[in-house]
Amino acid sequence: MSRLTAPGEVGSHAAEVGLEPVRRSADRAGTPYVVGSPMYVAIYRKPN
């Protein structure tokens, strides 16, 4: 069985390595993410 890593879990890992969240969407087209979406795309950036 596989699972989708929860957005909060991904965000925690990203924060641990110093990345800042830019956007989270439900698909590559930029549809806003809502709880229960079948997938999500999370974009982070490294601060200057």
Structural class: alpha+beta
Give the number of DSSP strands.
2
**Overall pLDDT score:** 90
Overall structural domain count = 1
Total helical segments: 1
Biggest sheet descriptor: 2 strands, antiparallel
> What helical percentage do the residues reach?
10-25%
The global form is: flat
Enumerate the spans where pLDDT stays under 50 for 5 or more consecutive residues.
none
Major sheet strand order: 1-2
Question: What percentage of the residues does DSSP assign to strands (E)?
Answer: 15-25%
Cα Rg: 11 Å
N- and C-termini, Cα separation: 39 Å
Order of helices and strands: HEE
List the helices and strands and how they pair.
Layout: H1 7-16, E1 20-25, E2 41-45
Antiparallel strand pairs: 1-2
Please characterize this protein's 3D structure:
Residues 1-23 are annotated as: Disordered. The protein is of the alpha+beta class and 48 residues long. The protein has one domain. The protein is built from one helix and two strands. It has one helix at 7-16; strands at residues 20-25, 41-45. A two-stranded antiparallel sheet has the order 1-2. It starts with 6 loop residues before the first helix and ends with a strand. The model has no long low-confidence stretch (mean pLDDT 90).
